[in-house]
Amino acid sequence: MRSLAGDVIKQAFSQQTDEKLHRRLYAAICSCILEGNLKPATRMPPSRDLASELALSRNTVLRVYEQLQAEGYISARTSSGTFVTDSVLDNLNLRTDREPTSPTQEDHTSLSARCLELLGYASASPRQWGAFIPGVPDVQYFPHRTLKKIQDRLARRLRPEFLTYDATGGVSELKEALADYLRTARGVRCSPEQILITEGIHQALDLVTRTLCDPGDNVWIEEPGYWGIKNILRINAVNFSAIPVDEQGMVPPGASEVAPKLIFVTPSHQYPLGSVMSLSRRRQLLFRARETRSWIVEDDYDSEFRFSGQPIPSLQGLEEESPVIYIGTFSKTLYPALRLGYVVLPKALATPLKKVHTDLYRGGHLLIQAALAEFIKEGYYAAHIRKMRQLYSRRRHMLVELITRMLGEHYLGSFNSNAGLHLILQLPADSDDVAIARLANAEGLLVRPLSRYYISEEKRRGLLLGFASIEEHEMASAFSRLAGIIKAHS
Predict the structure, then answer these.
(1) Can you point out the beta strands (E) in 351-447?
(2) Which residue among 80, 143, 274, 288 is least packed, with the fewest CB closer than 10 Å?
(3) What are phi and psi of 223, to 5 degrees?
(4) DSSP three-state, residue 178
(5) Beta bridge partners of 182
């Protein structure tokens, strides 16, 4: 016998696309109830009648009714039939007369002041691969198969501690391999016990900030400097003073400047300008840190990729027991998604910061850490860096030639050292580098405006051009488009 409820269900059933008949019927009845087409207390069609109307087996209908009853959509009354549950809409808080809300609307009313401030400065690019994106290596040349073979070999004799929480600051084999590598390649003075493995630079910076600063404390950062450091300081309510950078690195401020808890520097390859901190500045900074009882946080950014001359040794290794916290990452030398970095802590800080790291972050990725340790010990890491250094050197040379030929030598920034994964394309002082970058980004050219790295009103205008993640045969065409945008805007 046909009923109005049966007609409603039949129409909804015809609109469902699931191949499984019982799932189609279940979805159809649920939508009818939740959209108000089958109102509370409505009598459901008898299972035999509904099966006949929909050309289904009665067992299929009974199976769906049982499921709906178990979930509270319908209820059976002895000798009366089956009805839509009176309270189903109240229980699900899905009344149809509610005002619709936009799925993309953001509600900031419950966010903290620190979060709102950070959102105002958020700078991470939604795309992280392509022509001229700065700070991203060419991940296609990494020997993934080699690392996977090592990882598979370790997985066949898996140690239980690789599958549980890490409470020691990383796999001991990786810390030992890193200590040997850093002593040889970067002149870092350390033992494996001083090394803490982190999930990249940001976690390392956040840990150091949280453990060594209280809200309202003051720190020094470079001007211009990395936006990620500023946002970590903002979210932790730490004040910062932007200290200018010149061709010799951070310019030591006068005695009137408030003594900092932390001093953040990139001495081997300043980010973003590219200058190298001179020996005299390094010694001045170390003296000032000891005098004010401050800690220097050395981010050894892009230090492995120097294309001429000798590598610049670390600031940390300049003195015995120096007041320096040394931070590094595998994001540039291997690939960013690996999410592995490291901190070399002064002996006095090693134990407490490892305890805090364990409690706050619950370190993991222990199997990949163990595989990476063997990757380093067996020489693959150093070999990969040598190969990529040659590749990036060629790409940098090509980009410099393109800038000179299409725009002129005066567009090459005066700070550019022959190192790193990006260079500065210097624009005239009256240029709007933010607008130029926006136009370029819209064309798929992922440049960054230099002025956004400054806090003060005195800003250099330019573009950060990464050359690591673009093939040589694509570079000329891409830069020609960028040069056209720059000329048209000028």
Answers:
(1) 422-426
(2) 80
(3) -125, 105
(4) helix
(5) none
